[in-house]
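> call design_seq(struct)
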């Protein structure tokens, strides 16, 4: 029997992000997911090395790779619309859950439990799992902020308001999650520099 889970997942490259905004360079869901995975891994590594946490950095990277997989079915709904009120936010979360279920149905039954634990927060998640997933959400915000920096540096002012909004959200997260504060202080400043500047 054939299963089309991975053929479906491979279509992330066709999902454009920031659809309502003028982009100097378009970004697809595959690119974004890779960046989120790398940053999530880094955040967990910082947590383990500097704050004596016991986080599974490899699992965080895996969750980061799949964190927006449901958008293959739903498309990328712009954040201002998704969170306009609690009713719409809850309705969209239900749509995302249904999309995740549709994706899981595209796997053989003996593999579904493993991928469900990646796509969805386990009901019995322990404190480490919950903290790690918060860092993945932080990585998602950091990736969005990096996109704003890149657009701004290319002369595109379209992302100015988004950058301010995301910056405020990151400051709040950084006050609760020291790993995000460390990443912002140590790794964000070089974003937007030229290749020559990065090579020095």
């Amino acid at each position: 029997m054939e299963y089309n889970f991975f053929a479906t997942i491979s279509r992330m490259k066709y999902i454009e992000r920031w659809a309502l905004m003028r982009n100097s360079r378009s970004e697809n869901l595959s690119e974004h997911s890779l960046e989120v995975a790398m940053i999530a891994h880094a955040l967990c590594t910082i947590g383990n090395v500097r704050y004596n946490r016991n986080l599974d950095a490899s699992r965080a990277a895996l969750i980061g790779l799949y964190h927006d997989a449901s958008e293959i079915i739903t498309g990328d709904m712009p954040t201002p619309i998704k969170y306009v009120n609690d009713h719409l936010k809850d309705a969209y979360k239900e749509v995302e859950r249904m999309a995740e279920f549709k994706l899981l149905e595209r796997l053989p039954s003996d593999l579904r439990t493993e991928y469900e634990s990646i796509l969805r927060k386990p009901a019995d998640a322990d404190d480490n799992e919950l903290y790690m997933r918060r860092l993945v959400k932080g990585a998602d915000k950091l990736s969005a902020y990096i996109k704003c920096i890149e657009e701004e540096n290319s002369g595109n002012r379209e992302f100015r308001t988004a950058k301010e909004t995301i910056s405020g959200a990151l400051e709040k997260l950084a006050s609760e999650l020291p790993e995000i504060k460390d990443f912002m202080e140590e790794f964000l400043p070089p974003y937007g520099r030229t290749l020559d500047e990065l090579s020095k």
